[in-house]
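Problem statement: downstream parser choked on a complex file, so we are re-checking the raw output for the adenosine-5'-triphosphate run. The parser issue turned out to be on our end (a line-ending mismatch), but while we're here, posting the original submission so the record is complete.
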Amino acid sequence: MPLRVGLFGGTFDPPHLGHLVTAVNVRNVLKLDHVILMVANDPWQKHGIREVASAPDRLAMVQAAIAGVDGLVAGDDEITRGGPSYTADTLATLGQRYPGAELFTIVGDDAASKFGSWQRAGEIAKLSTLVVVDRPGSPMVPPSEFIWNRVEVPRLEVSSSDLRARFIDGRPLEYLISDQVMQVIAARGLYGSKK
Ligand code: ATP
């Protein structure tokens, strides 16, 4: 049986319960050997929209988030490569690392709805099986020129944007972000927390 590897890319600013519940459930449904939470070095789609925490800080948070969870891997290939992060390049790297593996590109449905504007979207669809997961609050339909596999995961109304807002206005973060990730945030003084 060829290895089955899921690529779940994101900014992870910060990683949250929604990301983790999605990763473990997609892994289970599609019987993937690994799901790689790939930290974008430079999320070019967010240019000019807001400041993003540094790539090493986001990688440290993802490493803490997945520590000890079977089958989840923190990916640093886009950071190692540097520059803007393009999924087609990342799939090519994974194809070399896991020769003969079946690759799956996993996206939430908000991300899937914008898939047509991704760089070299056709190449991504050729190199991998596209998987869209249901995400709360974004009832968009993914572009029909691509073939999508839909995976249902428990619907959790969590987003990194809401969590960043919670850091600013002091609303509770407990359970939405794991204790391990909170420790990294405190140690690195992220999102306005005191070192
Ligand atoms: P932001 O709110 O800053 O835009 P985000 O919460 O959407 O961030 P990203 O790191 O941009 O997080 O997302 C990475 C991937 O995770 C995307 O494919 C996105 O659709 C998906 N995703 C994010 N939140 C959820 C969630 N609650 N449930 C399922 N998928 C999610």
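For whoever reads this later: The mean pLDDT is 92.
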